[in-house]
């Protein structure tokens, strides 16, 4: 089934940046673009907008205005729009399930660095079953210039990051970009060693060679599938989040995986994804693990 790229908009500057990003990506991939605005009737006694029809008309007019600039720049793009009545998080999660990816806007902490990931964005990322891309206000096509990479975090066994690597390689192939695959490693605590793990490390020649082989094994299926995509294997000792952020300046897109963790105070998306979303200055794709 061919899925569209879906952009969630709400009329803000950051959602318009997300719409522009989604349109460019849809053109590159030869996919349709679906633009959705979640809307819920809010009674206003002070103004003449007490009926749902009036407010829905305002929302539709704002959506049409945003689309005019997109269709002007991409006249051949297949675009569909919808104003969906309902709660924002529920609507976006449902839309994401039917999309190749869901693209949302996010307000930056400042003019240069980071995202302000509100409760809606965090819930959508945590609950979506498809990739979610966060785009900051002010994002420009120049950020996708030749020479900038698709940076992806890899961890664990090959199956653990298969969906994350798939997304990174597909994106790089559509853009003619290089994939920089980043794997961080640390010294395990003494109690984590076992006879079995020590045997594997001995066979590999030590911790760093073991990690090098693990990264190569995870990448090999995607090198075979996308032979024209250049790949840089980036292995360093340290924190995964800090290592990804150290190469963020090279990235036109940062791709990270996530496993959502439900706690008594809400859903958490993992420290690496959370840190990258708050501090990277490029669009970030969060891909749920299979």
TrEMBL record:
Q: Where do transmembrane segments lie in this chain? A: none
Q: Coiled-coil region(s) at which residues?
A: none
Matching InterPro entries: Rossmann-like_a/b/a_fold (IPR014729), Universal_stress_UspA (IPR006015), UspA (IPR006016)
Pfam families registered for this protein in UniProt: Usp (PF00582)
**Which SUPFAM superfamilies does the entry link to?**
Adenine nucleotide alpha hydrolases-like
Q: Where is the UspA domain?
A: 1-136, 151-288
User: Which family is it part of?
Assistant: Belongs to the universal stress protein A family.
- The protein in question is named Universal stress protein
């Amino acid at each position: 089934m061919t899925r569209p790229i879906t952009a969630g908009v709400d009329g803000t500057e950051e959602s318009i940046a997300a719409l522009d990003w989604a349109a460019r990506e849809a053109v590159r991939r030869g996919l349709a673009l679906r633009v959705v605005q979640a809307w819920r009737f809010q009674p206003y006694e002070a103004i003449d907008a007490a009926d749902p029809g009036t407010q829905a008309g305002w929302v539709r007019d704002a959506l049409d205005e945003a689309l005019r600039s997109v269709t002007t720049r991409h006249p051949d793009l297949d675009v569909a729009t919808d104003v969906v009545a309902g709660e924002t998080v529920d609507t976006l999660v449902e839309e994401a399930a039917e999309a190749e990816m869901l693209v949302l806007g996010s307000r930056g902490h400042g003019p240069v660095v980071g995202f302000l990931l509100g409760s809606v964005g965090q819930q959508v990322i945590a609950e979506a079953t498809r990739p979610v891309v966060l785009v900051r206000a002010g994002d420009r096509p120049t950020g996708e210039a030749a020479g900038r990479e698709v940076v992806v975090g890899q961890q664990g066994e090959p199956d653990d990051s298969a969906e994350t690597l798939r997304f990174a390689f597909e994106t790089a192939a559509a853009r003619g970009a290089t994939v920089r695959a980043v794997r961080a490693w640390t010294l395990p605590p003494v109690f984590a060693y076992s006879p079995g793990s020590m045997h594997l490390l001995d066979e590999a020649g030590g911790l760093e060679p073991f990690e090098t082989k693990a990264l190569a094994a995870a990448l090999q299926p995607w090198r075979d599938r996308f032979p024209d995509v250049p790949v840089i294997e980036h292995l360093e000792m340290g924190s995964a989040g800090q290592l990804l952020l150290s190469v963020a300046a090279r990235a036109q897109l940062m791709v990270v995986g996530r496993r959502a963790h439900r706690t008594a105070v809400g859903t958490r998306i993992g420290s690496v994804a959370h840190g990258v979303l708050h501090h990277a200055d490029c669009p970030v794709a969060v891909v749920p693990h299979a």
